[in-house]
Amino acid sequence: METRAPVQWIKHIEQYVKSSATPSQQAASVDAVATLIKNDTLTLEALVRGMEMYLTTTDSIIRSRGILLLGEILEQLTSKPLNSTSISSLIGFFTERLADWKALRGAIVGCLALLRRQNDSGIVTDSEAKAVAQSYLQNLQVQSLGQHDRKLSFQLMECLLDRYPGAIEDLGDNIVYGICEAIDGEKDPQCLLIVFRIVEILGRSYSGPLEEFEGDLLEILGSYFPIHFTHPKGEDDGVKRELSRALMLAFASTPIFEPFVIPLLLEKLSSSLPSAKVESLRYLSYCTTEYGPYRMAMHDETLWSCLKEVTYISPQSTLAMESESMGGMNFQESDVMKQAFILLQEVIRQSGDFISLIIGDNDILLFLNSLNQYKEFDAIPVQDKQRLHAVGHILTTCAKPSVALCNKVFKSVFPLLMDHLELSVAKPSENSYLDEDCVCPVKFNFGALYLCVELLAACRYMTVSLDNCTSVPGFSDQTWCAMLSDFSKSLVEAFISLLRSSVADKPQSAYVYFGVKGLQVLATFPESFPPVSKSIYDKILLELVSIVTSDCSKAFLWTLALKALVEIGCFIDKCPDSEKAVSFESIVVEKIVSLISSDDSALPSSLKLQAAFEIGATRKVFMLTVAQGLDEAINTIFSEKNDHWNPESDKLMVKLLDTYSQKVLPWFLEIGGPEEIPLNFALSIWDMIENRRSLNLNPLEPTSDVLGATMTAMKKAVGSCSKESQEIIINKAFGVLFSRLQQTHNLGNSSGRDEWLTSLFASVVIALRPQTNIPNGKMILQLFIISLLNGHIPSAHALGSLVNKLPLEITGMDSSRSFSLNEALDMIFHNFIGTSRYDNTSVNDGSGVNISSLRLNTLRIQSEINTVIGLAWIGKGLLMRGHEKVKDVTMALLSFLMLDREAAVVKQFQNLIEEFDEEDVHRLMICAGDAFCIIMSDSEECLNRTYHAIIRPLYKQRFFSTIMPIFLSLVVKSESSLLRSMLYRAFAHVLSDTPTTAILLEAKKLLPMLLDCLSMLSKDVMNKKIIYNVLLVISGILLEKNGQEAAVENAPSIVDQLIELTAYSHMMAVRETAIQCLVAVSELPHARIYPLRTKVLRATSKALDDPKRIVRQEAVRCRQAWASIATRSLHF
Amino acid sequence: MTLGLINANPVVHAKKERIARTDDPHADDAVDPLEIYDILYVRDIRDPEHPYSLEQLSVLSEESITVDEKLGRILITFTPTIQHCSMATVIGLCLREKLKDYFPPHFKVDIKVAPGSHANEESVNKQLNDKERVAAALENPNLRQLVDECLYSSEL
């Protein structure tokens, strides 16, 4: 071992030092040697001794490589404990080597590796570090080195400053001088980043030695500001941001820099480059916080004049897009302005005296005094609006940070504004504006109005941020508070009179916007705030409510007032203080809710409902009141219907129910509100129906709109209930229904009122959860079956939902009441098909047809059609839960589908069928075909997640794979074209709802059938939707790789069929899709499609003349695609 | 012998955004200038000399196309980049070919250079609107190749 190990590591060293070594080989050698040392197979002393020749040779290339190797090995050993002797001899060696400029890199790397070591594994002492620094200062000419070496030497300096403050402190001025020398003229971004950090550390920790040289240092650094690349490249953005931040930290590292930095920044602020302005404002904000108010005080005046220049004298802002609806004063500020306001906020927060500069500023004062120029909003030029906006922003920025500042601003500005608005301190008796209604003697000064509202908003912001829902008693003593309380009454009156005056007639008037905003701000001061007393608050609410309840002709005002009320309501919710909440509830909520049921107001009902919902949405309690109001309104209309029915109340009813099901219920669901709401709603509807029993029966017309809306609302309500509540509802509903049935002794009587009952009952059943117990299942089922046979579609939905959700087995005690799926299915099949689960052996013998078991209950064809529809929904319910009986249903449907007169299968029923005329049979067959559409497609009405359907994954795929072979064999067997077209109809429905992935697996088999299907169905115009769906399936196949393989074989017939459809005159989408499919076909292998090229080009040339532009456009694309597969030209 | 380019340094303009049409199914779907210009990609024909489209060189614009659907007439006026451009006839041929391939044949297409934009305005117009001459020109394999390159260029 002893003898072999040295040989090995010496090999590594030779490998490294060799001039032909590649970087990766060198790295491998370093790793190998470092591992040896880490494992203690080799000691550091042995290594150094062994390397002696390489470290001391006169050949500078070999020497530099040797030293670098040693340095890099040390870099790897940072966590290996070393004794102090070896560290001190190594650092001594590297320190000395710093003078050897030919082998410099290794020395720097070694120094860095040793200096960076952590405490627990042995570190360099302060005196050794000092020696390194001295050697650095004496020997290194940093700026004459290459980029990488410069970076390393800067890292070395950073490390020394950061880790060995004791050693560096001793060096005094020298170190600063040396750093200045080293960094002067640096241009590389990576090096600069380190340079900035060096200065930052220097500023933070070495203010003593800095004293003399800060000027020189900042002269060097200053030339880098603002960071700007003369040759910008794409990826520079991140680097630029990083550099800019590092420089900012360096500038702000010590207050000593202030005399140099601030003038520099201020000077750059006057540059014409916007980016330079933004940067200097950003630096100024940061430095202001870092240097502190004492240092900054002397710059206040210059700062203010700069800020004034940027914000007030030449404001850079543009009217924002949506400005019209925001009162015409919504300005988008430029980046410079935004940054300037951040700085202003910072300065004001730092020093309280700064504000006197602003308030005392002559220009601002002059502007405020000349507000009379800006009386008329429309007469103000845009530039002056910008000024107004800027002044508003400056004042609000000043007022926001603290109470004291707010006082100052108020003292100097508020009286002036009040003068301009011609308001005086309100005396109790005086009530000048409100008493003389409609008369508006004053033309409001817009400028003053704007500033006043903005200032109030700033105060509100300040109080809310201070107050935070806990009362601060000190408010009333403050000057601004006292001033505001003097004026608050007259202000409110002024705003109100503004809204009542003729300016409000103008659409989108700025006066109206700020009038409403003023009221809103005053109403959203916290409770503890004295100037806005309860009476004033009530007055504001009354005014806004009266606008919302009466004035829909002024849409702008109406929307704003409603928005303001919503804001006020939200604010109450944040600070649930009692007094105002009570006022709000009694004034606003109750009034709005009473509006719902009153029909004498001028407001359209949709606006009423919108207002009610939005106000209600501010707080749960309010929404409960609103829901109650809705309930009552619905109730009233119901009872009214007895006496005099009119179409108007129908419309209102639909709107009420829609609001309930589309807004109120989802809102409660979202916030997890109490379950009583949907429960009570459902119960109250059943109550209403129950109470009407004694009254006359006929006038409840089955007006489809009202019935539909009621059903939707009922489904939504029941669907959002829990199992227990659902049981209450279903019991109640059953009770109502049952007592009614006892009265008439006639199940399934189709009078209008019974249809209402059954439909609503069906809605309840549709939305039940699977766990809910259903009482008297048999009776319910019977009811639905009978009403279904009378053509009642919701009953079919209910049947589908029942078979989807009924439990398979009955467990537990109450088996007498409950009802299992098998019982239900027995009943259903008995009624519809005449089979039960005990004698269904004959159902399927491969032909899939079992007409003998088909019991045609009545000879009326309509009832057969109803049966088919019912079977479709039942089949859907079974399919979704994955029940095997779906097969029976499918077979029954198929047998209906094949009721063709000539078909052999129905010979034995010839006589029966002949009783229908041919057209009726045809209708029945089509209906049976469409039943497959019901089975496969998703429904909004029932059997979806909202209504808690049981949905097995991949049920569509499963149905597809079971039914496809049956279809295929039936199609092959069928001889009559009518029969085939019916089969294809069903086939198309199934395919168009099957996921593409499943179809792709079978693409080869399906494609010929699909094409046949298209040619068959395209004969009848009524089939255009189906054709479109089939085309979409084909395009899905053509776009996928698997499908393309299948398409290659059938390419000629596909193309023929598609070409035929490019001229399909009944539906544009068919033509468009056919041409798109042709484009897809052009991607198939050339050899296969080349012969078809002429045909396609000829056909599409006709499509170029299509009446629809989209088709023409697709035709052009298609021709280009097909032309480019050959000579690039269209000639044939 | 290679001749220098006729216009070595053309002024290149920015490509305009494709204008999205409103998706109104009942809109009037009659042929209009924008369709010819935009939908039928006339703007994307490459210049015979430079890897820019006719639009970028401002040879064509939407305004320079007029359509009269009742009479079934289309008039395209284009502006050669320089007065003596001998490529004007090639550009005209390209336009004619493209419309022939991608447009219903019952429209009569007139192609002209903008008045005053070309030194031999009259003779160019005459060449471009003479059926026989156009057919003859397209039988010339060199011309044919040049036209095809402009129409199906992938350089844009």
From TrEMBL, chain A:
A Pfam family reported for this protein in Swiss-Prot or TrEMBL: MMS19_N
Principal cellular location given in the protein's record: nucleus
Keyword line: DNA damage, DNA repair, Nucleus, Repeat
Domain MMS19 C-terminal intervals: 705-1080
Segments traversing the membrane: none
Gene3D superfamilies: Leucine-rich Repeat Variant
Domain spans labelled MMS19 N-terminal: 48-309
Superkingdom, natural source: Eukaryota
Cell location: Nucleus
Family matches, as SUPFAM superfamilies: ARM repeat (SSF48371)
UniProt xrefs under PANTHER family: DNA REPAIR/TRANSCRIPTION PROTEIN MET18/MMS19, MMS19 NUCLEOTIDE EXCISION REPAIR PROTEIN HOMOLOG
Its job: Key component of the cytosolic iron-sulfur protein assembly (CIA) complex, a multiprotein complex that mediates the incorporation of iron-sulfur cluster into apoproteins specifically involved in DNA metabolism and genomic integrity. In the CIA complex, MMS19 acts as an adapter between early-acting CIA components and a subset of cellular target iron-sulfur proteins.
Family according to the record: Belongs to the MET18/MMS19 family.
Protein name from the UniProt record: MMS19 nucleotide excision repair protein
Species assigned in the record: Rehmannia glutinosa (Chinese foxglove)
Automatic annotation (TrEMBL), chain B:
Protein family per UniProt: Belongs to the MIP18 family.
Native source species: Rehmannia glutinosa
Protein name: MIP18 family-like domain-containing protein
One Pfam family this sequence matches: FeS_assembly_P
InterPro entries from the UniProt entry: FSCA_dom_sf, MIP18, MIP18-like
Superkingdom of the source species: Eukaryota
Domain MIP18 family-like: residue ranges: 43-112
